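> tool_call: predict_assembly(chains=two)
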Amino acid sequence: MTELLRIEDLKVHYPIRTGFWNRITDYVYAVDGVNFSINEGETYGLVGESGSGKTTIGSVIVGLEKATAGKVIYKGQDVTKASSRRKIHYNRDVQMIFQDSMSSLNPRKTVYQIIAEPLHNFEHLDNNAMDKRIKQLLDIVGLPQRTLYQYPFQFSGGQRQRIGIARAVATNPKLIVADEPVSALDLSVQAQVLNFMKDIQKEFNISYLFISHDLGVVRHMTKNIAIMHLGRFVEIGTRDDVFDDPQHIYTKRLLAAIPEMDVTNREQNKAHRLAIEKQYQDHHADYYDASGRPYPMRKLTDTHSVAMTREEAEAAGVASGKAEADALAKGGE
Amino acid sequence: MIIGKNLLEAKGVGVDFRINGEWLTALYNVDLSVKPGEVLALVGESGSGKSTFAMSVMALHNPNQSRVTGSIMLDGHQIVDATEAEMRELRGVKVGMIFQDPLSALNPLMKIGDQIQESMSAHSIVPKEQWQEHTIKLLDEVGISKPELVADQFPHELSGGMRQRVMIAIAIANEPDLLIADEPTTALDVTIQAQILDLIKEIQAEKNIGVLLITHDLGVVAEMADSVAVMYAGQIVERGTAEQVFENPLHPYTRSLLRANPSLDTLNDQLYVIPGVVPALSEMDHSRDLFLERVPWMQEAAKEKVSDVPAEPEEGHFVRGNAWKDFKFQDGYLEPGRGQKEAQSK
């Protein structure tokens, strides 16, 4: 397995400005020191509740957001700075699929224009070649040729999501950041889109960063998973590590909260969920530092890492977080 | 089991909308009933008519652009031909509603406490001098830890889960007998979703109210519902207790939906895809089993007319049409529940 993209100690802090002089008084630690890597042709799952910073990570990778600190390394080259991206065609190789297909497609452009846009930007094709390529892309995503000159509002949600995918794969990317690609879709349409994403992955050896809060979908799609909470990772592992042997209390809580498709053991499931919830409330201080954020990670096995508990963090001599983060943020100013 | 007479009883409910001067059928011959203390889940994809049904129970359809036929009895009151004045007496008192998106359902310019009292002021159930006290009690009941503080805040100051709790407080302010929850947790994270569902269950058990839960999430249904009705293209294709529908699904649509859900068995495989799309309103011929159009190997059966009276293969378990008798997945997929059942009967 060759590594395609590595994120090293990525931090994204947003300043909070207050007062008459609009001075920076504090920071929002949207993403606070995460490390992970995506292999070629693999799907990496990023799970967390809303506001945990998962979309911010995706935005940094495609370059919609600037990193406060840390590095994005693509095929061994540092691409954190925009200028360094152009040289290695990073912007062509890394594309994105958005959650809401209605608002991510320009309503005044036809399907042809939408799919042509990345081609105009990155591939210099003449008109014939462009036509051919766009028709080919429509075939790949399974839309009929007659839809070429239709507008986004004329499609159903599942079809629109496929137009979004056609646009993303137009430049033969190596990595696609898929931010909640199926959250807005019905079950039957969701299955179509997920299958389809798997198909093109096999065909073109694409890697995905699959961002979602739906653990069922993530389990189906991904090989490795990171669970994120409050801007930090609390657990990283293979799918089996995380689902069969969750270590962090937050992971356990997330897993317990998924509604089970099991009518007969309903009471048992509920009792289990409430027990975990109680444990989460009672032992919150053991897993989160004084500023309320998870402790740094430690390795359990080669694939499985988990955020430390307080005891472990103290034993390892890791500072309590807040002070250190503050110092860093000031240093980065 | 739940006994007693029905709180909500819908018989042959149809809803037509006038679109560009043409009357189109959005809901066709819906039979449903909710008993006190029962949670009935209405499941279906977007556009299947779940919310249309809920809106007709609340009589919220625009009378100029829609017509409702059939009979909807709510605790002895006929809703279909009720006047607006009569409905005002029923809404809130007999039936309360929780909406999907609490931020757009709450008034952004009104304090939480005032919004709860607004629903009390519309009816004379709670005397005026007790409004304040009752508001605090309600907020406490829906699990808000600092009710006095929250009552004085605006919706934007609260988190999504808190807002949904406020919505529930408003819905139960006049102690309704029926609670309609239209996708109450779709906008929430799983952990918050679990809390809100628990809360609805708790309130339902404590006050012995009936709940009509509208959702597209089969997991939520399995956790919450006593009985389930599955809707497709404006019709109920199957209904029964949760055990019946999940353990022994009959209608091809129910079985296809259950199979399309990502589960442990499908880990590395392709998910099951239901071919085709839901037909447009103008193309729906409700005298047939519309779902069969999406089953390529049952095209003959798709053309047959189907009786409006559903079959009842086991007690309390209704299924529309005849296709359920012969339906099999073409690739020989053995459905978990069914396989065991057939093995047992052999």
